[in-house]
Design goal:
The complex is a heterotrimer of chains A (about 240), B (about 500) and C (about 110). Chain A is mainly α. Chain A is built from 11 helices and no strands. Chain A has 3 domains: about 80 residues, Up-down Bundle (Four Helix Bundle (Hemerythrin (Met), subunit A)); about 45 residues; about 50 residues, no CATH class. The longest helix of chain A has 26 residues. A two-stranded antiparallel ribbon of chain B has the order 1-2. Chain B starts with a helix and ends with a helix. The chains are: A mainly alpha (about 240), B mainly alpha (about 500), C mainly alpha (about 110). Chains in contact: A-B, A-C, B-C.
Chain lengths: ~240, ~500, ~110
Amino acid sequence: MSGEWILYIVFGATALVSAIGVVFLANPIHSALSLIGALASVAGLFLAQEAFFLSVVQIIVYTGAVVVLFLFVIMLLGIDSADPREEQLLRRQWFPWAFLGGVIGVGGLVLTITGIDLPFGVSGTDTADAVNEAGGNVQALSERLFTDWLLPFELTSILVVAAIVGGVVLAKRTKDLRGSGMGLTPDLAERISEEVEADAAEGELDPEDAFEADDVDPDPDSDAVLVGETSENGEG
Amino acid sequence: MSVLAQAIPAPQTDYTTIIPELIVLGTGLLIVLMLAIRRFSNIGWYALIAALGFAAAGIVAYVDLWPEVTDGAATYAFSGMVAADGFSTFVVILSCVAGVLAVLLANSYLKREGLDKAEYFALLLFSAAGVQFMAMANNLVMVFLALEILSVCLYVLSAWNRDKFASQEAGMKYLLLGAYTSAIMLFGISFLYGGTGTLNIAALAQFFARNVLENQGLVFLGMALVVVGLAFKIAAVPFHMWAPDVYQGAPAPVVGYMAAAAKIAAFAALFRILFLGLSAMEVDWKPLLWGLAILSMIVGSLLALVQSDVKRMMAYSSISHAGFIAIGVAAASAEGMSGALFYLVTYTFMIAGAFAVIDCIGRKDEQYTKYEDYRGLFAREPLLAAILTFFLFALAGIPGTSGFVAKFVVFEGAAEGGQWALIGIGTVAAVIALFFYLRLIVLMYMQDSTERPDLAETRARVAAGPAVVLAVTVAATVLLGILPQGLLDMAGQAVFAL
Amino acid sequence: MEFLQTPPDPDAYIVLAVFLFSIGAVGFLVRRNAIVMFMCIELMLNAVNLSLVSFGRALSDLSGQILVFFVLVVAAAEVMVGLAILVAIFRRRARASADDMSSLKG
């Protein structure tokens, strides 16, 4: 039995099983862990096809960064339990069959249109020997990337800058309580300011001081209360 | 060690072909840098810088590149990654115009809503660069990357209003569905690559000229999936589900820009991929575009009839406009293409103007966007009502406005290809569209705003930026309606020099 | 098992990629949790990556691998923006279920 077949069967099977796990597990954390399995298996399949650089990058970028980001956000937001409605759906007896039917239907349709015997008439110049001569997979790829593919490579930097700027703007909390920050709805901000003024009337606190303080202490407890109250307000 | 000693060949760089893009990107990065180093308290300065950046890029493209590219054949730069030709330069100039309008609209909006973060302008600039690179892209990877730059910026801009849940929801929906369709489009690119062995669009055409495929399934599916991905961006039925929600939830100035920018970019890429790369498969993609055009025109117009929110109605209207522009592509002729380009220009002006009015009438938090809020608008805000009426007539394609000329030239292109069925359906759709625009117009001129003291008391304020936008867009819509020849010639030249 | 003696055909990888893709595509449609929907998109992108590498190998061309490299970057950028929006939404709402996203109606 050819070695590549072993890799193909082992990693292909784990990829499919863990991919199904991503969809079928009700708890997002379990889905994320299952996703790691799927991504690592694809890295294995890259390895089987002698795409060494991508295989390593796949592990580092996907499992190392993307899935960790997923897990981080799941933990940060505390959605580490399944949505009851969704769990109900996933537990239905017909659901696996419907899902499997859908997958086989879509996949079968694609394969029928493309034809399972794919036409591979064209042959490029990057044969395994040519790649070896260039010094290996990494060398050959890097040479391409920094010559022919220079402009797309530079454009990815713009994409990343745009994503970072966007991410920071969206997720950053502003310091000013009266402004838009901390997820305060206008209603809630008004209520807080009323409370502060009421306190001030009792002589406990000067409202001006309370609000001019630039750095509102991001006390985790108080934040939790704010989030809870916001959702109660049912703003939307 | 020997590997290190080996010098790799110097990359082929020709930065002169992408000067406008470099200016736009440079301005965006400058704004990001300035935000890091020192903050102007007034974001007006950043708006000024962004507007100047757009203007400079547009002027450079028109003065420096336009005469050059319309003279001869396309020049390919960066190892065939980008093509500088009349078509791409035309789109670059158009995207700069859309950018200036967007900056003018946004400045007062951001201040009014207390969302004044100058990153907005940086993202606008980046997204415009995405549009421009998409028009220039001569490689499917470039198309994909530029589309993603544009999309990522638009996702963030849609979710910009952090005080409004609807805005964040709009951003989230747009992103989820956008990422989903990008994955589908990418699968299509992968099939095209697998079937032809190249990602270069010009090389695709050469491949089809040299080879006759025994099994066309792979490239056909690849082409179809790429069309699906781009159809999503132009909000063509049946890939329009996101548009009503995003248009309704996103800030009005963002929508005024996004509606035009996303269409410009996606149609530019469609033109290039289908006309240049896959012209040999015309029999295959023509029916797809037919379907998209017909469905978008009919479904968009019909669903717009039953809306009760102006922004949502504009979403369905934009869907039906996508259908009209798609007629130009489906015509598969130079006339159809230049007609579609002309349509995109007029649409850019009309939609920016219409959303400027909607923004002013919506006031703080955009709370007045329902049809009910527009009842009796003429009595309260005669000028705004008159301007909105004008734009609605232009969008409907009443003679004398640029909207009419645009529909006319698109139909003309289809007629040259003998596609009378498309023209017939388009005419029916235009008549239906007239009804839903008229419905809003009639509502505005009704005389019973007595039940709305809240509206009667606070007058809508038109800040300087939107005022300039309104003046420019009204002027452009009138001018292009009466004297369209100059721009028509330009659009013709752009396509001719492709 | 005669065919196991020779290395697998590129077609074998493509079939695997197609099914991986359809699991992601169908999963996106059936799940309502925004984070899991993102994961399904990642699955789809990975299937695309797998098919690109296999096509590239069959064609003896490195462009496929280069495109995978760009897909990795794009996927990371999209996930980042998506999760940022999600965090912003969660500041005001306790659950990130797409079913709850219903404030936008006609």
